[in-house]
Amino acid sequence: MRDGASLTLRINGRVVTVPVGTSVAAALALAGDFVSRGDLGGRPRGPLCGMGVCFECRATIDGVPEVLACLTPCRDGQEVVTDA
Q: How far is CA 71 from CA 29, 41, 50, 51, 54, in A?
């Protein structure tokens, strides 16, 4: 990884630039959208553990639903859609 290298992805249609090596969950936080989904009552949920155990970070990534954002590295041109 180059120092200062960055990539661009879209989160809920918004263009976000993050450092290379950033997880999608971290990109959500950097973008100010740390909420990734709502529970059955509509209450906001977001990543709790950061290691794929809590399943609270699930999002649709490149059209694949229920992907764990905390375990998914960002890549250039990636499309992320949250349920929140």
A: 14, 26, 8, 7, 12
Q: Are strands 58-61 and 44-45 parallel, antiparallel or unpaired?
A: unpaired
pLDDT band at 5 (very low <50, low <70, confident <90, very high): very high
Cα–Cα distance for residue pair 26/7, rounded to 1 Å = 13
Q: Are 35 and 45 in contact (CB under 8 A)?
A: yes
Give the chain's count of helices (H) and strands (E): 1, 7
Give the contacts of 3 (CB within 8 A, at least 6 positions apart).
Answer: none
